[in-house]
Amino acid sequence: MKNKQSDKTLPKLKEVAAQAKVSPTTASMVFSGRGRISENTTKAVRETAERMGYVHPARKPTNKSKSGRVALLMLIDREWTFIWYFLNEMIARIELDLQKIGLDTVIIPVSHNEKDKDIYHKIINLECQAVFSIHYGKDSLFSRLENAEIPVILILNNNYQDKYFSICVDDFQGAYEGTRHLLNLGHTKIGFVDTSREDLPILSTDRYYGYRKALEEERIEIQKDYLISCTPGLSSENPDNSFQTLMEGSSPPTALFCLDDEIALQSWSTLTRIGYTIPGDISILAPGDVLDYSKTYIAKITTMHIDMKYVGRL
DNA sequence: TTTGACCAGACTCAGAGAGC
DNA sequence: GCTCTCTGAGTCTGGTCAAA
Hints:
Blueprint: H1 13-19, H2 24-32, H3 39-52, E1 69-75, H4 84-100, E2 104-110, H5 116-125, E3 128-134, H6 139-147, E4 152-155, E5 165-169, H7 171-184, E6 190-194, H8 201-217, E7 227-229, H9 241-247, E8 255-258, H10 261-273, E9 283-287, E10 292-293, E11 296-297, E12 302-304, E13 308-311
Parallel strand pairs: 1-2, 1-3, 3-4, 4-5, 6-7, 6-8, 8-9, 9-12
Antiparallel strand pairs: 5-13, 10-11
The structure holds a DNA duplex.
């Protein structure tokens, strides 16, 4: 009787495991992403496999396990709930498009405090064939999923566009167009209010360069006094000294480009608290959505349209 | 005592030949 | 062409061991 193995020249998992001095179980877990395997062991197994030319068989779904499900990871952390406001339509479109090709969407709530393995096992237990992640970015989780042959598609997260399929906001172009809009309104003294976004560091850089390009095209020199770094958190009752100093200077800006809508709201809140009117004394513009913090609509903050485009490995 | 890393052996899955 | 059976590859479960 013939063996299932058709090519005896190809190395087997057992042989790779023996070479790497681990059990076949451990080697299998390295490739499947299951279990707890140390970094050193993982590295040793992968390097041995690569050296021997071992190819891990794709996890072909069986008839029993073919679920036709796609996971949609959605942040439920309190500070990010505002994004649901403008994601509803996007999620509906994703679901409709997946339905057309016979796939069901499963929304999996995730938190930044949640461990990779817990999220991973949720996805595995639901037998999802692919994962969309909206805003949420966790390289360690994504690489584990892709090792398990589960493709990952990131939405609204520019950090990993060189590693995973990503659907990104064009932050550079958005900031450029926003600043141009202010220039077209006659503003020439435009400040930039930044903040540290540890979750999305590229966002800050891209938007700053978009702002800078628009000003450079008009040969307007960027004044260092106009660049403010702001700490997020609307609960702060202390007026921001940076805004006070900015507005009391010899040549205060007539408009501010804020990194995002939360920072815009904080800028608006601080400026009004220290006696300035918006847009009377200064205009504010920010990328994002109109927020409704503390039941106060900030309709005077102009929101700008952000074009979405496909980037990454497509 | 808990946690992480790993292993042994039982188990599942799926390809392929044999028999009808 | 369908079903049965065999078999190797890979996975899962439950356990051990060491370190914190």
